[in-house]
Write a structure and sequence with these properties.
heterodimer; A: 196 residues; alpha/beta; Rossmann fold; 6 helices; B: 329 residues; mainly alpha; 75% helix; globular
Amino acid sequence: MITIDEITIVRDGREIIYGYSEQIPAGSITVITGPNGCGKSTLLAAIAGDIAPEKGTITIDGHHPILTPPRTLSKIRAMVKQNQFYSLGFSVREVIEMAGNADEILAVLALEHLADRAVTTLSAGEAQRVSIAQAIAQKAPVLILDEPFAAQDNENRKRIIDLLKKLAEGGVTVVVVAHSSEQELTWADKVIKQFL
Amino acid sequence: MKIGKRSFFVINFLLVIFAGLIALSVGPTKIDGFFSQLIQPGSNEILWQIRFPRVIAAVIVGAALGVAGLMAQGASNNALAEPSILGTASGAALGAVIAILLGLAQVGSIAAIVSGVIGALLATTLTLKIASLRGNLSSFALIIVGIAVSATLTALVGLASAIITQPDARSISFWNFGSLALITYENLAGVIATTFIGMLIAWKVAPNLDRLSLGDETAFHLGVNVTRTRLLALVALSLLAGGAVSTVGIIAFIGLAAPHIARFIYGPKHRLLVIESALIGSLILVIADTLARTLAAPNELSIGLLTSLLGAPILVALVSFRNNVWRVQ
């Protein structure tokens, strides 16, 4: 369970989130939607422990992300960034293995044929799926994804949604930021619309 | 490691041994019965008291500079970083020169090395701090600030060395272009110690540098303590470059060329690159030093000129080939 309690987040002197509270149940898929700049990515960054709220608290199963050492935190939550840039030519397999075992997830996300390719040569959609695969290989009980469908075609979008549903059924708490209409979000257990 | 990479490793290792043997055998004085003298330590004074420590120094310093470059590039996640560009080398030179000026040390002594390492650490930290004042550490900011810090510290080395009374430390050419001519067994010990400790830290921090190449945020998400990793890499860089520079002066280009050549052959994994950058750095410096003391004998050329002449074309050739080893954002 992720508990967000009256948080205020200020970035570059601007209040991005003010007095916001929310509870995200364990083993569920929660999708956050809203217009650009409303603070969706900022909220995810705060849950992931990247930034500290000015006021209020966030806890993941009782742990405060901002107070938890990085290694311990990596066993509690995994995070997929919106845009992952790869500067060094590690293979797809090597990048996933930085987090955990690669074999199973390569097959599930249709990345097997790319396993030995340098990540610097991938298309945006492929790079995004590698990023998702790496986070899932981390096997953390909370999975946070910032716009994971941005560069995906319909087939891969469906593949990722099926995977997220399967993970949630297995007890993983999934939090996703997505630009989707409400009709398209039938796969989500909870939708938070324009959360301010 | 694939078989191809393992073969390259063996070839590289054998090349260092081969280049070392050639370096021992050539010079102004011909050594009769070279191989029989070689298996009898101490038998020939020129071989054992002059050439042997010098060749060992070339192997050690070359390895130190190669891995120092790897740490600089890994810690800053920047393909252009190297000890000379980050100000590390000139910081080490200034640290050593100040210690010599104050009468606390001599070139290559433990005290000069300690001062050099402290100077290297302070200069590198200064460059990184100033370059990241406006947020992210961009390549542009890092290189501009590094050049500025390096130029300032080099000027201070020039001023300080002009008022030193010790003849061996007075030479601005020594501090700016390096020389292995003054190496003795006594001042080898210090640089061997800093290189060994620096390499151990580099080996330890290498897997986290792999993760750091994905960016600070992703590395943090994977459980890396980014600040600690970067600090450890900078300590390794300062030990390696500081120990080398305070013993033989600044030798440019190896720190830039060796990791790139190693990466092109062996790929981006930092653990493998620690070994390979060391071997390639050793090979370049042994060849460069042999050429420096034989091309215009009995005069010696500046070794920095030779490392640039050897390293630059190799580097240009490598980046001209189509490769996906390092992509710049």
